[in-house]
Write a structure and sequence with these properties.
Residues 173-229 are annotated as: Disordered. Helix content is 45%, strand content 7%. It is mostly helical. Strands 1-3-2 form a three-stranded antiparallel β-sheet. It starts with a strand and ends in a 9-residue tail after the last helix.
Length: 229
């Protein structure tokens, strides 16, 4: 059990309120901590040690960049997807390594092994297993230039940033695409959201042709007050 003591020389400071705010800022539920006063005018916050330990990252949803991480990720893929049972481990590692370098997670690769980029499930069964089938499925998640397409989790992250700002979900798409009915944010909010989206794309998608083109389309569709794009 950890104990935090809060005190102040200013009698106007609400120490209990400060302690409650501290607990909330750490994501601790009120019933998970004890807040009480002692006779010296201090407020004591007691926290279970388990709340102070950093939770382990979900192995299916964290990026894998180091060779060891990629090796462990491929072991997980081998266990989770029955169509990979007859695929040589080195082949699996070679086919997926660049996807992991582009910020994909194990869950993203599992999704790609089960679905086409348009969301349609791949056929399954004894006739759809082995090395050739693995390569065919992963090739579908590359552009004609050979770049890695954004994964499902990367696209979801980008769309969350855009939707929170009130931007149309189809921002940056060709003009003949049907326009969204979502409200458009103010220019200041739009620019901020676009900057956040670009940072996410740089972080998760690295510098593939897809991510660069999407950044260009996004910036081209935001008009500033001075009339410049």
């Amino acid at each position: 059990m950890a104990e935090l003591r809060i005190s102040s020389d200013d009698d106007q400071v609400d120490l209990r309120k400060m302690a409650t705010a501290l607990a909330e800022s750490q994501g601790w539920a009120r019933e998970e901590v004890d807040i009480w006063d002692n006779r010296r005018g201090e407020v004591i916050v007691t926290v279970d040690d388990s709340l102070l330990r950093k939770p382990e990252a979900d192995p299916l949803h964290r990026p894998r960049h180091t060779p060891r991480d990629v090796h462990n990720a491929c072991e997980t893929l081998h266990r989770e997807d029955v169509s990979l049972r007859r695929v040589d481990f080195r082949v699996l590692r070679d086919e997926t390594a660049r996807f992991f370098s582009a910020g994909w997670t194990v869950a993203d690769v599992l999704h790609a092994l089960g679905h086409r980029p348009d969301g349609v499930p791949w056929p399954s069964g004894p006739d759809h297993q082995g090395t050739a089938w693995l390569r065919a499925r992963m090739k579908a998640w590359r552009t004609p230039n050979g770049d890695i397409r954004p994964s499902r989790s990367q696209e979801a992250s980008q769309l969350r940033v855009i939707s929170r700002a009130g931007l149309p979900m189809d921002i940056g798409l060709p003009e003949d695409t049907e326009m969204s009915q979502r409200p458009v944010a103010s220019p200041a909010v739009a620019r901020s959201a676009a900057d956040d989206a670009r940072r996410l794309m740089r972080q998760n998608s690295r510098t593939t042709t897809d991510s660069l083109a999407h950044r260009d389309r996004t910036s081209a569709n935001i008009t500033r007050r001075d009339g410049h794009r």
